[in-house]
Design goal:
This protein has 73 residues and is mainly alpha-helical. It contains six helices and no strands.
Length: 73
């Protein structure tokens, strides 16, 4: 029952500190045992991640050939 309550609150967007208080825990660390995320929540978290743009090119990719790059060293 406690686990189900913690997961339901977590899925509803309630933060761990509030869930900890709801369950009567003295610390959110204790709540972590109950408030584990399920597979759907993991999928949702992955879907929210945006790819990091890599605007910096490696030095060897700037030159037309690897030999040109090596000669420039």
């Amino acid at each position: 029952m406690r686990h189900s309550t913690a997961v339901a609150l977590l899925k509803s967007g309630v933060d761990l500190s509030t869930i900890s208080q709801w369950l009567g825990h003295s610390s959110p660390t204790t709540t972590n045992r109950y408030a584990t995320i399920d597979l759907d929540m993991k999928r949702e978290a992955i879907n929210r991640v945006k790819p990091v743009a890599n605007s910096r090119k490696a030095a060897w990719r700037i030159s037309e050939t690897v030999l040109e790059w090596l000669e420039s060293l």
